[in-house]
Amino acid sequence: MLTIYCPVCYAANAETRVVCAECGASLMEEEAGDFTDRLLWALYHPEPTVAPRAAWVLGERRDRRAVEPLIALTARTREMGALEEAARALGKISDPRAIPALASLLRGSYVSVRVQAARALGAIGDPCAVPALTQALADSSASVRAAAQEALNALAAREASRR
Ligand SMILES: [Zn+2]
User: Fold this and answer.
1) How far is the CA of 62 from the centre of ligand 1 (A)?
2) Are residues 92 and 127 in the same domain?
3) C-alpha dihedral, 20 to 24 to 27 to 31, nearest 10°
4) How far is the CA of 5 from the centre of ligand 1 (A)?
5) 19 C-alpha to ligand 1 centroid (Å)
6) What is the pLDDT along the chain (163 residues), one digit of tens a residue?
7) How far is the CA of 69 from the centre of ligand 1 (A)?
8) Are 11 and 75 in a shared domain?
9) How many angstroms is it from 18 CA to the middle of ligand 1?
């Protein structure tokens, strides 16, 4: 039996249902909101493969509405794929609000996530990220150290071009 997930409470429902068995919300596609709303909803999806894909699409769309939800995703998940894609997407959207969350990932997450966080901080290009990136030059992983150095170089180049 196929299941569909409630857009309000995330309960799994039989696909034949038109309202959620748990909360009574409509399960009809056309009432599920616009595309960005549905992607933001998918960041909370109970299937672990869904949130990383939604984060990737949100990054491609450069939609600033996704910044806070992606930051929230980095705070609540321990899934490596979701953390990687959230960091990558926050780099693409390049909103400085993401700097503290990315700095936190850079200090303490999986190696691949630390690399993405360093790259994202370089992409955002805000000098506020310099202390976190400088600290990452002492990371135990050579890939993280290299990504941090690249990000610092990008920041320095940007600063030089401003003068
Ligand atoms: Zn529901």
Assistant:
1) 29
2) yes
3) -160
4) 8
5) 8
6) 688 888 778 888 998 898 889 888 888 766 556 778 889 989 998 888 899 999 999 999 999 999 999 999 999 999 999 999 999 999 999 999 999 999 999 999 999 999 999 999 999 999 999 999 999 999 999 999 999 999 999 999 998 888 7
7) 20
8) no
9) 11
Distance from the CA of 25 to the center of ligand 1, in angstroms?
5
Do residue 75 and residue 22 come from a single domain?
no
Judgement on whether residues 24 and 40 belong to the same structural domain of the protein: no
Q: Are residues 45 and 18 in the same domain?
A: no
Domain span at 2: 1-28
Q: How many domains does the chain have?
A: 2
Rounded to the nearest whole angstrom, what is the distance from the C-alpha of residue 10 to the centroid of ligand 1?
6
- How many whole angstroms from 51 Cα to the centroid of ligand 1? 18
For the whole model, what pTM was predicted? 0.84
- Do 117 and 43 fall into the same domain? yes
> Are residue 10 and residue 89 in the same domain, yes or no?
no
